Amino acid sequence: MPEDSNLKRIVENGPEIYAYMYIQQLGGAIWRLNHDAADGRIPDSPKIDRDIAEMRKQQLELIKSLSKYGVEPLNEDGHPTEQYWKWYHWWNNYIEGLPQIDWQRLDKEMSENIDVSNWRPPGSWKE
């Protein structure tokens, strides 16, 4: 889960790839906690419920921030729009299709705080 300072940096001026990565990471953590609690692998507790609520809040902040990339992320009811899902799948297909050597290079650049704004899927999510 990103720290509040990391989330604020990403929302305000982070590269788009970080928004995708954290949205994905938070979604996976939420799913895992819910799944493991439902299966009894971890005890259901108010702390886990609070952690999940905090992760959802952070994920929502990241999704809302996508408007700066031209994405209308949420509808009037607060649910992800078709535009959001197009953007998400555009990024997801790109990230999942990266060869291992590119993953290693991206990981190194992210770890060393090198500008990763050039890591983008080809074309546009609007296509």
Question: Helix and strand layout, with pairings?
Answer:
Elements: H1 4-13, H2 16-38, H3 46-64, H4 82-96, H5 100-111
Helix pairs in contact: 2-3
Description:
There is one protein chain. This protein has 127 residues and is mostly helical. The chain has one domain (4-111). Helices cover 62% and strands 0% of the residues. It has helices spanning 4-13, 16-38, 46-64, 82-96, 100-111. α2 packs antiparallel against α3. The radius of gyration is 16 Å and the shape is globular. The termini are far apart.
Strand content bin: under 5%
- Give the overall silhouette: globular
Integer average pLDDT:
89
Strand pairing plus helix content: what structural class? mainly alpha
In this structure, how is the largest beta sheet organized? none
How many E-type strands? 0
DSSP summary: helix tally = 5
Unreliable stretches: none
In oligomeric terms, what are we looking at?
single chain
Structural descriptors:
single chain, 127 residues, mainly alpha, 0% strand
Short summary of the structure?
The protein is mainly α and about 130 residues long. It has helices spanning about 5-15, 15-40, 45-65, 80-95, 100-110. The chain has one domain.
